[in-house]
């Protein structure tokens, strides 16, 4: 069966085994394997795989425009409304971890500055700050997150009680990989901003799983993965930096097309 665009796989309200076999036919997973770990790597459907192959073939056939800037900008234009952001606030990355590093290493840290995180955070979010602890002398303040918490208010209160005069940022997973807890990002952002603290969100799991609106959530930074629940394949990600704080975040890498604190120049 040929690859089918998403529009051709819209489900009805009827339980239809033939429909699900049609969906199954759109993946190249070997017979006998029931793959259920999209939380690590979602399988690419055939339509995505064929699109990747077509682009690689086009580059090989006509390498005169190997930067493909128009394509990158077109993707950013499509991604922005999908996640509730402006295109100028979106950078395309290769992973959630890359986006977390962009923000963490882009800030001007001083020795003794603090980042606040909880005990359920993934290494991809913690890692950049462990490096900054060794290189810049920042402090990592870890709060113990109950499992399960009593309420969203309790979660926000735990963070607020841990904020000090040196707290610069909160790093938090939108959906934790440990328990699947969904953190109240909007409430947390409102509280943090009252204390002058930035909020950086590790969004490895929500993209493709739940509706996202970065502007509504109010966070300052959000890094998301394409290869998990969105089924977009490896090496795909989205990094959001809110427009009014972009002058506080340096690009992670400099290059021929990088000029200062350009939001999509990583």
Write the layout of secondary structure elements.
Elements: H1 17-24, H2 46-61, H3 69-83, E1 90-93, H4 96-106, E2 114-118, H5 123-136, E3 139-143, H6 152-162, E4 167-173, H7 185-194, E5 198-203, H8 214-217, E6 221-225, E7 237-241
Parallel strand pairs: 2-3, 2-4, 4-5, 5-6
Antiparallel strand pairs: 1-7, 6-7
Description:
The protein has 266 residues and is α/β, with parallel strands linked by helices. It has 2 domains: 18-65, no CATH class; 74-248, Type I PLP-dependent aspartate aminotransferase-like (Major domain) (Aspartate Aminotransferase, domain 2, 3-Layer(aba) Sandwich), CATH 3.40.640.10. Helices cover 33% and strands 14% of the residues. It has a 7-stranded mixed beta sheet with strand order 1-7-6-5-4-2-3, sandwiched between helices. α5 links the parallel β2 and β3 (139-143). The longest helix has 16 residues, at 46-61. It is globular, with a radius of gyration of 20 Å. The mean pLDDT is 90.
Question: Which structural traits does this protein have?
Answer:
266 residues, 14% strand, 7 strands, alpha/beta, Aspartate Aminotransferase, domain 2, seven-stranded mixed sheet, globular, 8 helices
């Amino acid at each position: 069966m040929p690859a089918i665009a998403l529009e051709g796989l819209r489900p009805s309200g009827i339980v239809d085994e033939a429909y699900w076999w049609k969906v199954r036919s759109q993946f190249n997973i070997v017979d006998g394997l029931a793959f259920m770990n999209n939380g690590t790597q979602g399988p690419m459907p055939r339509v995505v795989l064929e699109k990747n192959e077509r682009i690689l073939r086009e580059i090989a056939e006509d390498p005169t425009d190997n930067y493909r800037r128009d394509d990158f900008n077109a993707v950013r234009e499509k991604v922005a409304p999908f996640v509730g952001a402006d295109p100028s606030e979106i950078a395309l990355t290769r992973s959630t971890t890359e986006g977390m590093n962009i923000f963490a290493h882009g800030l001007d840290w001083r020795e003794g500055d603090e980042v606040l995180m909880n005990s359920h955070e993934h290494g991809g979010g913690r890692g950049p700050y462990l490096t900054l602890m060794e290189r810049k002398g920042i402090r990592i303040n870890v709060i113990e997150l109950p499992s399960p918490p009593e309420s969203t208010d309790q979660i926000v209160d735990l963070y607020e009680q841990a904020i000090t005069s040196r707290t610069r940022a909160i790093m938090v997973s939108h959906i934790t990989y440990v328990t699947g807890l969904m953190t109240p990002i909007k409430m947390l952002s409102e509280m943090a901003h009252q204390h002058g603290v930035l909020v950086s969100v590790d969004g490895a799991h929500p993209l493709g799983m739940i509706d996202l609106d970065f502007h509504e959530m109010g966070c300052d930074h959000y890094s998301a993965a394409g290869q998990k629940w969105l089924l977009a394949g490896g090496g795909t990600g989205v990094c959001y930096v809110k427009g009014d704080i972009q002058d506080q975040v340096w690009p992670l890498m400099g290059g021929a097309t990088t000029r200062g604190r350009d939001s999509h120049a990583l």
